[in-house]
Amino acid sequence: MECDCITLPYEQTAYFSTLVTDYIKQSPRLASFYAHAPNIDGVKAAIAQRKQFATPRQSLVTALTAQYQQMPNANIVQAQIALLAHENTFTVTTAHQPNIATGPLYFIYKIAHAIQLSRHLQQQMPEYNFVPVYYMGSEDADLEELNHFTIDGKRYTWRTNQTGAVGRMLVDEAFITLLQQLEKQISVLPYGKWWLQTLQTYYKIGVSIQEATFSLVHELFGNEGLIILIPDNKLLKATFTQVIQQEITTQFSSNAVTATIQQLAHKGYKVQAAGRDINLFYLTANNRERITKTSEGNFEVPTLGLSFTQVELLQLVHEQPELFSANVILRGVFQETILPNVAFIGGGGELAYWLELKAVFEAAAVPYPVLVLRNSFLIMQQQQWQQWQRLGFDEVHLFQPTHQLLTAYVEQHSEAPLLLETTMEALQNMYEQLAQQVAQVDGTLVPHVASLQTKAAKKITQLEQKLLRAEKRKFSEQQLQIQRIQSQLFPNNNLQERVENIGGFVARYGKDFIQQLLATSLTLEQQFSILLLPNFTQVK
Q: Which of 504, 511, 506 has the alpha carbon at shortest distance from 488?
């Protein structure tokens, strides 16, 4: 399957915040909020810093080896895991929660980006090894964010009464019913049965969501050398106990992030994540609850009725580190503690909160990675792109409001606006001449002439608006084409990647679709991509 790819600056899409576009442009206003620039020199600097940190490589290799012990077809990944034991091996990491069936498309884009950036860095610096890692945020307890996926506009939602970390939840009858509903939609497509069978293979009754996600992502990217890490692991958390104890005794992360947030706000940037006084959760089989500090200096998990003295809580950290879970403020510090990571790939929201965390990393004495904005794609069929071009529009126009495009189309193809523009110029010249003549007779009447001109111009503008509405009715077919294409590409006025699931695309194009994503994934270029797929009717 051959595809074309068009790129454009993120700023031209108008879908990304000023903070993100300023970071991409390396604005001096943000220079103090990150450690390394997103380029080769920045990666080299991150490597130099990482070499000074005692990454718990052996614990990491042991944990990963155990996680992959029963995984079939894992020879390539096992070779990658073995590389992690060596001091000249570094990771390129992306992180995401275990959305069911992979959730929105950007879940896949992040992973493809990590794989391609690892390969790019390997070519640029062959003296090192670079391994792509998907760090699974399986301790996330926000079920409403993870329990659904959308295919061709139809949303599928998993309704379950389970609570706690989503990764620990189990596939139940409600989930199986969801897959049965999906079968009715995609089984008629060329690769729909394959995708459905793949989901059914891994999402089985009694299997945890993190296990199913692990297997599914391995099915899609294991042969590309991707390592999947489930950090909900006692051995890995044991390497993080020093930071957990530091948080309990000093609440260092809150102090560090608060100061940074104030600095960002002073520069006019929106705050992404404010954090808590204690940025840790207490994690059990069915709960992930906040740890708070009392006015007497003790600690509580109010929702579970638990209380501890500081000595008791620190002892618990030492004996059972798996009971502690970092929230958004400390999650990245945990990730960078256990991985020999030099580059982190995240979306706009993720980069926004990572830019709040540099001081937190410094206080924890953990290396801060290069931040790379994840790749974004808009997927079109060739026939959609050809229709768009016939309307006289280019890739930038795709991201503009429909009403604005229709107005531009009418103005381009109608003679009325040109006629009115000429009339307005003539009107202005006439009133200027009239004002000069009146001034020679009675200067006090000049304002009256100006008032007449304003009223006349207002009437012409009203006429122009009426003519434009009339012209729009003449171009109703083109209006429908514009609306149809944009509604297909921007569901509910959102970026496609934030709504649609990969299922609809692999059901039509098979694994070739994933290979095209890999082939067109950028590395450090930081551009938005439009991927033009063959017309579906032409796919065999």
A: 504
CA atoms within 13 A on the CB side of 188: 2
Cα atoms found within 13 Å of the Cα of residue 75, Cβ hemisphere only: 1
Six-digit token string for 364? 């924890």
Q: Which residues lie closer than 8 Å to 273 by C-beta, 6 or more apart?
A: 257, 328, 329, 353, 356
Two structure tokens written together for 275: 């954090």
d(CA 519, CA 298): 54
Provide the token pair at 210. 């993190």
- Residue with structure tokens 């990675």? 369
Calculate the alpha carbon distances from 139 to 211, 246, 532 in Å: 13, 21, 36
Burial degree of 183 (CB within 10 A; 0-12, 13-18, 19+): middle
d(CA 63, CA 68): 9
pTM for this model (two decimals): 0.90
Q: Is 208 helix (H, G, I), strand (E, B) or coil?
A: strand
Pairing of strands 341-346, 4-8: unpaired
CA atoms within 13 A on the CB side of 299: 25
Would you give the DSSP letter of residue 170? B
> Rounded to an integer, what distance in angstroms lies between the CA atom of residue 373 and that of residue 221?
21
Element (H, E) at 432: helix 416-441
E strands, 163-248, in order? 227-229
Radius of gyration for the chain, computed over Cα atoms and rounded to the nearest angstrom: 28
Q: What is the pLDDT of residues 69-116, one digit of tens each?
A: 999 999 999 999 999 999 999 999 999 999 999 999 999 999 999 999
- The tokens 């993100």 sit on which residue? 20
Distance CA 133, CA 116 (A): 11
Give percent of the chain with pLDDT exceeding 70: 95
DSSP one-letter code for 374: P
The DSSP line for 233-279 is -HHHHHTTHHHHHHHHHH-HHHHHHHHHHHHHHHTTPPP-----SS-
Residues 6+ apart with CB under 8 A from 537: none
